[in-house]
Structures are given as C-alpha cells and as structure tokens.
Amino acid sequence: MHRVTLDQILEWNPQITNPDLIYPGQRIRVAPPEMEGEFEPFPGADFFQPSVSSPVIEAMGYRLIDEGCGVYAHGPDSRWSEADQKSYANWQWKLGFRGQDADGIPGRKSWNRLRVPAVYE
Fold first, then answer.
1. Is 95 helix (H, G, I), strand (E, B) or coil?
2. Which of 27, 34, 46, 109 has its CA 20 to 30 A from that of 18?
C-alpha cells in the first residue's frame, strides 16, 4: 500500500526491536518513497512550540536521525520537545550555522535543506 519494504520500516522505526511483534495502537512511521517535490514546506518558526503536536514534527525527527543529528532517547514523536530542538541545533551546526542561527529553531533555509518528506494523513 505504501510501497516500502520491511527493511525501510525497521530503519525508520528504531523502537521496533522484533519485526514479528507490532502491537495494536503502536505508532510506526511509514513514509512513501521520496519523489521530487514531495517535501513538507517550511511551516514557520512559530510552529515549533511545546504546545504543537503534528506528524510533521515526527517526520522532521526521523530526517534528523537520518542525517546523524538526532539525540532522541526513544525516537521522535509528534510533539515538539527539547530533544527536537537539540537535534535541530545539531543539524544547523552541520550546515555551518553558528550563534543564534544554530539555536535549534528551524528556519526556512535549514528546513529546505533537510527535505522533510511530505506527511500523508
């Protein structure tokens, strides 16, 4: 249905330690293959607040892990957190940003370079 392999699902969901055990209600990431132009647009810096919960934040977290910048204890989720901010700051540093430009709050330039896959709900 989503055109992904079991290996991709396991890669995108490090919390799954046994692929034979997936529980009812367990949230797993299933992303369609990335195609040109299928990325989340920058939602604006005000979007990244502790009160915000969105699958876009979770998708961003998995991209940060893919880039070697994630500092999540149990993987990202849909609520903006301190781990998201620290992980994003790592991404900003990786891109060469410093000072206030590497505060962990996404900006348009760093967001566009992260290429967060479009979230299908």
1. coil
2. 34
pTM as predicted? 0.69
Q: Where are the domains of the chain?
A: 6-114
Q: State the Cα–Cα distance between residues 70 and 85, nearest whole angstrom.
A: 10
Main-chain phi, psi angles of 47, to 5 degrees: -65, -30
In 10 A of CB 59, how many CB atoms?
A: 22
Torsion sign (Cα): 34, 117, 77, 93: positive
Residues 3-12: pLDDT tens digits? Answer: 667 887 787 7
Q: What is the pLDDT of residues 40-71, one digit of tens each?
A: 888 888 899 998 899 999 999 999 999 999 99
Q: Is 90 helix (H, G, I), strand (E, B) or coil?
A: helix
Using CA atoms of 64, 68, 72, 76 in order, give the dihedral in degrees to the nearest 10.
Answer: 30
